[in-house]
Design a protein that fits this description.
Shape: globular
CATH topology of the largest domain: TIM Barrel
Number of helices: 11
Radius of gyration: 21 Å
Largest sheet: 5 strands, mixed
Distance between the termini: 24 Å
CATH architecture of the largest domain: Alpha-Beta Barrel
CATH superfamily of the largest domain: Metal-dependent hydrolases
Structural class: alpha/beta
Helix content: 25-40%
C-alpha cells in the first residue's frame, strides 16, 4: 500500500462549494485522494498532519505559461544554447510550484523532454501539459526572425537565427499546417497552439492582423481532433475570436479585444477563454528594462486597456475564464498577481475557480485536478488564512503557504 497522509483540523476550500467549511478530514494515499469526509477517517497507518485551522484547498492551475521563454524580448533567445534555456526553465518551473501551482499548461515552447524531466524527478516543477511549438504563418506572431533573417530555400531553415525557432514553427498553406500539427502531436503535444491574430511580443504584425486562412485553421482543428487533442488559439481581436469559434477552436488565449457578438458565439460553441492580464501590467511596469522595444510596448497599451473589460464581457455571456499568466523572462515572478488584478471585476470564488475547476475543464481533467474530492490527484496547498477574504494570501512567492503537496509528495511543509 502507498504511503497515507491524513489531514485534520482545517477549513476546507473546495471550489465547488463556494465557501469555507469546517469539520472535514482528508486522506491521501500515494498520488490520489482516497477520502474526503465529515466523519473521522480510520487510517491507523497514516501520517497525521494537524493543519491548525488553516485553509486547505486544491493545488492551483495556470493554463497559460511559457516555461522556456526566459527573455522578455524573445529575440534575445537566439543567442542562448538549449542547455541554458533548459536550466532557466528548471528555475522557472520550481518557482511556479513554490507559489502553489501544482499543474500548468504550456502554450508554446516546452517539449516532451522538459515534461519527462519533471515526471522522472530530474526537474522539480508542476504537472506539465505541453503544446510543443506554437504554429503560425510567415510574418505572424510565431515568426521571431529579424527582418534581416532569411529562410534557406533548400531546407526551409532559418539563416542566422541560431535556433530561435525551436520554440515556434512557421507553416504556410494547408499542407504545411497539417504537417506541423501532426509533428507537434508526434512529439507528445497535449494541445495544438496556433496564432490567429497579431501579438505584443512580435513587433512586425499589427494586433488586428488576421493570421492563417480558414483552410489552414480547419486543417489544424481536423488533425488535433483526429488525434484526440484540441486547438487553442492566440487571438486578441473580436474578428479573430469569431473566426476561431466558427472554425472549431476550443480555447481562446488572451481575448482582450473581445466584443459581445464574438463572446456570444464563443458561448454557443462551449468555448473557454484563458485570460492573462498580469502580463500586460508587468510589461508596462518593467519590460523596457529587459529589452522590450517601443513597438511592442505600444501594442501592450492597447490590450492592457481591454483586459478587465474582456472579463466583464465573458461574465455577461457565461463564458468560463481560466487563469493564465503568460509572463516572459524575469517578469515570471508576478504569476500570482493575476488573482488580485481580476478582483476589480470578478469575485474571489470565481477567480479561485478559474485557477482550479475551470482550469481542470480546460485540461479535460475534471475531477482529477482542481478539486479535493476522492479520486483526484493529491495536489493541495495549505493557506495561512482565508483567501476568499484576502486573495493576496496566494501571492508573495508562496510566503503564506504552509504546505504544498503535488501527487502526494510534500514539496513544502513548515508545520513540523
Amino acid at each position: 500500500m502507498s504511503q497515507q497522509i491524513l489531514f485534520k483540523n482545517f477549513e476546507l476550500l473546495e471550489p465547488s462549494f463556494g465557501e469555507l467549511r469546517g469539520g472535514y478530514q482528508l486522506l491521501v494515499e500515494g498520488d490520489t485522494i482516497k477520502e474526503l469526509s465529515t466523519t473521522p477517517i480510520k487510517a491507523a497507518e497514516a501520517t497525521v498532519i494537524d493543519c491548525g485551522k488553516r485553509t486547505l484547498m486544491p493545488g492551483l492551475i495556470d493554463c497559460h505559461v511559457h516555461a522556456i521563454h526566459s527573455e522578455v524580448n524573445v529575440r534575445f533567445m537566439e543567442a542562448l544554447p538549449l542547455t541554458l534555456v533548459t536550466a532557466r526553465a528548471a528555475t522557472r518551473l520550481r518557482a511556479m510550484l513554490d507559489r502553489g501551482f501544482t499543474t500548468v499548461r504550456d502554450t508554446g515552447g516546452a517539449d516532451w523532454g522538459i515534461k519527462t524531466a519533471i515526471e522522472t524527478g530530474h526537474i522539480t516543477g508542476p504537472r506539465l501539459y505541453i503544446a510543443g511549438q506554437s504554429i503560425g504563418p510567415t510574418g505572424g506572431h510565431s515568426d521571431s526572425r529579424r527582418r534581416t533573417n532569411r529562410f534557406n530555400s533548400s531546407n526551409n531553415e532559418c539563416v542566422c537565427c541560431n535556433g530561435l525557432q525551436f520554440k515556434s514553427a512557421i507553416a504556410d498553406g494547408v499542407d504545411e499546417v497539417r504537417k506541423s500539427a501532426r509533428e507537434q502531436m508526434r512529439q507528445g503535444a497535449d494541445h495544438v497552439k496556433i496564432m490567429m491574430s497579431g501579438g505584443v511580443a512580435s513587433p512586425y504584425d499589427p494586433l488586428d492582423s488576421q493570421q492563417f486562412s480558414d483552410g489552414e485553421v480547419s486543417a489544424a482543428v481536423e488533425e488535433a481532433t483526429a488525434f484526440g487533442r484540441y486547438v487553442c488559439a492566440h487571438a486578441y481581436s473580436a474578428e479573430s475570436i469569431t473566426r476561431a469559434a466558427r472554425l472549431g477552436v476550443r480555447t481562446i488565449e488572451h481575448g482582450n479585444l473581445i466584443d459581445d457578438a464574438s463572446a456570444k458565439l464563443m458561448a454557443e460553441k462551449g468555448m473557454f477563454l484563458v485570460a492573462n492580464l498580469v502580463t500586460y501590467y508587468a510589461m508596462k511596469d518593467r519590460a523596457k528594462q529587459f529589452g522590450m522595444i517601443g513597438e511592442s510596448l505600444a501594442k501592450n497599451e492597447i490590450v492592457l486597456q481591454g483586459g478587465l473589460k474582456s472579463l466583464e464581457i465573458c461574465k455577461r455571456h457565461n463564458i468560463p475564464v481560466a487563469y493564465g499568466s503568460d509572463l516572459l523572462g524575469e517578469l515570471h515572478w508576478d504569476q500570482s498577481k493575476e488573482f488580485t488584478i481580476r478582483q476589480e471585476v470578478v469575485s474571489p470564488i470565481e477567480i479561485i475557480r478559474s485557477a482550479t475547476t475551470i482550469g481542470a475543464d480546460v485540461l479535460r481533467m475534471p475531477g482529477r485536478v482542481g478539486t479535493l474530492q476522492a479520486g483526484a490527484f493529491s495536489d493541495a496547498i495549505l493557506v495561512d488564512g482565508n483567501p476568499l477574504k484576502d486573495l493576496a494570501l496566494l501571492g508573495d512567492q508562496g510566503k503564506h503557504l504552509s504546505l504544498i503537496m503535488k501527487a502526494g509528495i510534500l514539496h513544502k511543509n513548515r508545520l513540523n
